[in-house]
Amino acid sequence: MAFTATTEIQQEHQQKIKEVFAEVAKVVVGQEYMVNRLLIGLFTNGHVLLEGVPGLAKTLTVSTLAQVLHLDFQRIQFTPDLLPADLIGTMIYNQKEGKFEVKKGPIFANIILADEINRSPAKVQSALLEAMQEKQVTIGETTFTLDKPFLVLATQNPVDQEGTYPLPEAQVDRFMMKVFVDYPTKDQEMEIMRRISNMSFDYKVNTTLTKEDIFSIRNEVNKVKISESLEKYIIELVYATRNPKSFKLDHEAQYIQFGASPRASINLNLASKAAAYFEGRDYVLPEDIKEVALDVMNHRILLNYEAEADNVKTADIIKVILNKVPISK
Predict the structure, then answer these.
(1) What's the structural domain count of the chain?
(2) Chain segment 124-148, per-residue pLDDT in tens
(3) What CATH number did the domain enclosing 259 receive?
(4) Is 2 a member of any domain?
(5) How remote is the C-alpha of 216 from its chain's centroid?
(6) Is 96 in the same domain as 198?
(7) Hey, which of 49, 143, 255, 291 would disulfide with 307, CB 3.0 to 4.6 Å?
(8) 62 with 139, same domain?
(9) Is the dihedral of CA 326, 327, 328, 329 positive or negative?
(10) Is residue 126 part of a domain?
(11) What is the CATH number of the domain that holds 80?
(12) By the 8 A CB rule, do 104 and 124 touch?
């Protein structure tokens, strides 16, 4: 159902969002799900962590999306020898002027792609953490406010863990969503192979959304209504991860070490509003909450060693919670 009090500008934005998907598809085959989650993060001011094996077009998708949105984009390859100054910038002595000047780092952009974020040491991760949370960077004695929109899209390789620095729980929690990127289908992979083997393949895309459009869409998403019963449903879902036995989830309780933080309920609310907006509605349905629940909560529930021994995944726990927790009246 369309917006009840729709305006021409809202209809125009809805159309432009569809065009964003179409433009990205010119370069990236499939991965509409990833693009959807990246746009949810963009329109709700939330950072996104992408996890998947190499070669699934994570980097290509993010860089293409930045082109379509005409936003400043910086890709930072995280390595064990990276320093905080390589990320945020540093003070450089100007011999001609006889004083120190600030040289800003790549963090000063609208979209930051933190490639293989778990390969950087703790000092670099803490520098990125300030930027993600405070939307500001401190160099020397000066604090700089980052340009808006500011979005960190980080990638993580789940296979090769040698020489990596696992992200602290506090930092992982600051990502709005953790999205698992899957392999393409056979037909999609055939199309990928044909495109790449065709040397004349054109990677050019058209700019579809401006910064003004993005801020306007953010306001429209914020105005999407969510009923009190669904707000209570979100709280119940999050509470079920902390006290599963209260919801007769005795089997799942043995595997959960820590439940989701309050950021889970905040981001479930925001992400479900964006999901409803993408469907052309100005109100949230239970299906919207269930659609985003996995990506919002899968990195916020910490399982114990028993879960690892029994090969129980966080996604399994969340699916059971979604099936068993009733919607409040």
Answers:
(1) 2
(2) 887 887 788 888 888 777 788 888 8
(3) 1.10.8.80
(4) no
(5) 20
(6) yes
(7) 255
(8) yes
(9) negative
(10) yes
(11) 3.40.50.300
(12) no
> Which pLDDT does position 1 carry in this prediction?
44
Domain annotation covers residue 163: yes
Does residue 266 sit within a domain? Answer: yes
| Residue where one domain finishes, among candidates 216, 251, 286 | 216
Which residue in the block uniquely carries the two structure tokens 């996890």? 51
Q: 3-state secondary structure string, the chain? A: CCCCCCCHHHHHHHHHHHHHHHHHHCCCCCCHHHHHHHHHHHHCCCEEEEECCCCCCHHHHHHHHHHHHCCCEEEEECCCCCCHHHHHEEEEEECCCCEEEEEECCCCCCEEEEECHHHCCHHHHHHHHHHHHHCEEEECCEEEECCCCCEEEEEECCCCCCCCCCCCHHHHCCEEEEEECCCCCHHHHHHHHHHHHCCCCCCCCCCCCCHHHHHHHHHHHHCCECCHHHHHHHHHHHHHHHCHHHHCCHHHHCCEEECCCHHHHHHHHHHHHHHHHHCCCCECCHHHHHHHHHHHHCCCCEECHHHHHCCCCHHHHHHHHHHHCCCCC
d(CA 155, CA 64) in angstroms, rounded, equals 15
pLDDT tens track for 298-322: 888 888 888 888 888 888 889 989 8
Q: How many residues does the structure list for the chain?
A: 329
Question: How far is 97 from 75, CA to CA, in rounded Å?
Answer: 32
As a whole number of angstroms, the distance between CA 55 and CA 322 comes to 32
Q: Tens digit of pLDDT for each residue in 79-132?
A: 888 888 888 888 787 777 777 777 888 888 888 888 888 888 778 887 887 788
User: Which residues form the domain of 16?
Assistant: 8-216
| 271 shares its domain with 212 | no
Of 216, 248, 275, which closes a domain? 216
